[in-house]
Each structure stands twice: as structure tokens, then as C-alpha cells.
Write the C-alpha cells for this entry.
Amino acid sequence: MHPKLSPQIIEIFQTNSVNETRKLSEKLGKVLKAGDNVALTGNLGAGKTHMAQGIALGVGLTSDNYITSPTFTLIDEHYLNDIIFYHMDLYRLNDIDELLELDFHDIIRSGNISVVEWWDLFPETIPSNTLIVAIDIISENSREILMASGKPENWTDRLSNIR
């Protein structure tokens, strides 16, 4: 977890395969609601995009709307019935000005669901009610997945349902 972030840990999970990681993240997607923001953090290859794929399935996207990493497009929009699922990747951005040019703050305050990879590169922009999902590589297939928030009261009950 980024040292500038001081959220409270809510849950810690361990997965032992990409499939387990995706199943966990699909359960997470099922407890998300309009207005939620999720920050996915971790080293390259940790599984941030796999987490985003599972979350997307959990919120109701079908496999027809396959989620890929928006490393080059930066922002992908997927339309559900009454909300937009935003999947963003900030890895290629060099500074906060580039982030602001994307209307980033409008997106995360839009009342939709936003899942943001590499948000920890700009920790000063992460609202306290964001769910931070930090993925640590334990071994080739195993991951420790820590979920935390500056406002754990927004997440504790919902996250207890995904165990």
C-alpha cells in the first residue's frame, strides 16, 4: 500500500490462481453500488486487470463486454442499465495535469462505478471513501489481496459478504 495512503484494513484474502482471484473480484463486484470507486494497486503482473474483469462480471457486465487493460486508451466505459462502469488505467500518465485533462474528478464523482488501476500513482486524488484493493504477489500463482478504506464504515458490512 502506498505510504501516503492511511486507510484502515478491512479484509485480507489469499488466492492461489487467476481463477480464484477472478471469483473473489466477481463477489466484490456484486456488492458495489452506484457511486463506488475502487483503486487497484500492485506491481506489474500482480493481477489488477484480472480483478477488474471479475468486478465487471459481478456488477453485471457479460463476457461479451470483455474487459481488457485500458493502458493505451486510459478510460473504457461500459454501459449497464442505469449506470456506467468506468475502467481506468493511470500507468502511462506522467503527472497530475494529464490526469485532470481526462476529466478524472468528474468521472469519479459521477455516481457511476469506477475501477482504477495504478491510482496509487496519484494518491492525493483518492477520495477517503474509495475501496483500495492492494494486490501483492506471493508466488507465481498466489496473491495476497488487502482491502482497505479511509472510511471503512462504508465497506465493512459489504465486504463481510464476500468471504
User: Anything to note?
Assistant: The beta strands are 8-15, 37-41, 75-79, 84-89, 113-117, 131-137, 143-149. The first strand starts at residue 8 and ends at 15. The chain is about 25% helix and 25% strand. The chain has one domain: 8-158.
